[in-house]
Amino acid sequence: MTASNGVGRVPRALRRRASGPGVLLVVVSLSLPALAAEPALTLHANAVAGADVPLTIDLFRWSTDAERTPLLAALAPPAPAPQPAAAPAAGAAGAAGRGGRGGRGGRGGGGRGDAAPPNPLARLTSAVKAAPTLGFIWGNGVTGYSIKYAWHAPAEAGRERIVLVTERRLGAHAPDWTPAPVATQDAEFTLVELRVDAKGVGEGKASLTTNVGLDAKAQTLALDGYDAAPVLLKVTR
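RESULT FIELD:
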């Protein structure tokens, strides 16, 4: 990726023409958004399932802690339910029973009217859509997959562990290489977990075949059972 400051050079012919008498040259410079001098990550990969489809990962930056928090919270275990109040004494219970039969109906009705908590996968899908775009994964088509979550940390054997989440299902427009999903989850997004060495060479697995989980120790989204998941991507720098 090459940085650009958005300021163009004045052609030599125009500079010579502007030197004549009575000629006023006005150069208008459009201010373009500043780009990072270097991308946070650039990797190339090939899908190993089905057709040999090349992919390019272009990551502008990693997720901040604040940006990761809503996605982690979506899969966090629910808070424990409040403990019920202690049972009243026998005398008080008898008085309440004689005077308040309707209370039992009201209590039951209130319980039945409570809305069920949202599905964790639905919460995570909403959080992914609301997150900022941090980069793209490009395939053969003109439309890339927006990266909404990006985390990395050292892994074993000198490798780096990388977790990316795309807003759309990876391979949605390339059914010839998309593996048949065997996971119980059916999400719109895709989590890709990579293991690469210092040269950027390694492997990648995805939630297309493995469920998404929460790595509480590393504080990141992750594949649930990475070691047992099939390899879907061969990664090169």
